[in-house]
């Protein structure tokens, strides 16, 4: 009788562990998906920032220029501020902030922001070194702000979606990147 009760107790005691392991397995799947999406995002970002969405190497710019005056080159010929360029530079780095918050939740806000700044700086330096366009301090500032907004958005979404945030964000990022890729392909074919 005692063995039967002990066996029943051990089966009952292990059930919550199975549930935890399923949750852990789901978390691992989400984390793996997040990493894959981050790699795809970084490839798309590199294609956008360095290669200007070009399919041909002959379309590269062959000049080197550095703009160290914030928003100095952000004006249109008629004197208006080019908000599309500024907002575009902010917008393209928002996903990086979200991915950093998902993958490195224990990092401080400053550390995540520093990584966004550093990646943007690497892109700007590579643009100059390989003569792929203008190296612009405005882009550096805008990209960093975009990363910071991404971090903040994730914090806000976490309050709404609680434990489902990573799953929802992965779905959102997957759809977002598919739409961006489709738009870029469409614009390059038009």
TrEMBL record:
**Presence of the UniProt keyword Membrane in the record:** yes
Residue ranges constituting the VanZ-like domain according to the UniProt record: 39-157
Give the transmembrane ranges: 36-61, 81-103, 115-134, 140-157, 169-187
Q: Does the record carry Lipoprotein as a key word?
A: no
What keywords is this UniProt entry annotated with? Membrane, Transmembrane, Transmembrane helix
Signal peptide (residue range): none
InterPro entries in alphabetical order: Teicoplanin_resist-assoc (IPR053150), VanZ-like (IPR006976)
Q: Which residues form a coiled coil?
A: none
Which named protein is this?
VanZ family protein
């Amino acid at each position: 009788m005692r063995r039967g009760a002990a066996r029943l107790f051990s089966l009952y005691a292990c059930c919550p562990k199975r549930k935890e392991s399923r949750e852990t397995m789901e978390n691992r799947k989400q984390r793996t998906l997040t990493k894959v999406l981050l790699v795809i995002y970084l490839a798309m970002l590199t294609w956008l920032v360095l290669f200007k969405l070009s399919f041909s190497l002959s379309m590269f710019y062959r000049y080197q220029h550095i703009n160290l005056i914030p928003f100095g080159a952000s004006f249109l010929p008629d004197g208006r501020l080019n908000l599309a360029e500024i907002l575009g530079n902010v917008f393209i780095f928002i996903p990086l902030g979200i991915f950093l918050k998902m993958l490195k939740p224990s990092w401080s806000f400053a550390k995540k922001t520093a990584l966004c700044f550093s990646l943007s700086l690497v892109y700007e330096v590579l643009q100059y070194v390989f003569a792929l366009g203008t190296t612009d301090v405005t882009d550096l500032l805008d990209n960093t702000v975009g990363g910071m907004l991404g971090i903040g958005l994730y914090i806000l979404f976490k309050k709404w979606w609680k434990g489902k945030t990573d799953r929802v964000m992965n779905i959102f990022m997957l759809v977002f990147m598919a739409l961006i890729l489709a738009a870029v392909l469409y614009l390059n074919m038009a």
